[in-house]
Amino acid sequence: MEPHDEIEDELPPDALFWAMEPFGPPMGEAACSTWDRTRFPTPQEQQATFDGEPTVPERDFPKARAVCLACPLLEICRDYAQDSRDEHVFLAGETAEERRKNWRKSGEIAKRHRQVTALYTLDVPTATIARLLQRDESSIRGDLREVRKRRSDLPPTA
């Protein structure tokens, strides 16, 4: 029996998936999704820059960074950029190379904290979370304590 078998009948469709992979491309009206004619001469040039293939990197990346800094989805996009490990596109105001410099263990810990939080808010028992994430229960309780320091909306652990 797999760890997820004991809870998948109790959760809404896709809830387990989103709890285990709590990141995805930002949903909403991202600033980069519409052509910024004040910064880029053509929509194709803007798209090429965000695809990681700027015409003139020294000119285009600062323009793209300015678009990102004005975006209402910047924080969500930063989480996505950190977790996705996309090695090509310009995301959250950073080139793939700039993001690669920041990829370290802290990214993995942040992802695990998001997974633990998402599962815990779905009322998945701590023991089951531990099995799903292949960690021991005390480690999961420690993760919840860390998350709770930053979030007051989580109930106490059992």
UniProtKB/TrEMBL annotation:
Domain 4Fe-4S Wbl-type: 31-101
Lineage: superkingdom: Bacteria
Family annotation (InterPro entries): 4FE4S_WBL
Name this polypeptide is given: WhiB family transcriptional regulator
Organism of provenance: Streptomyces pyxinae
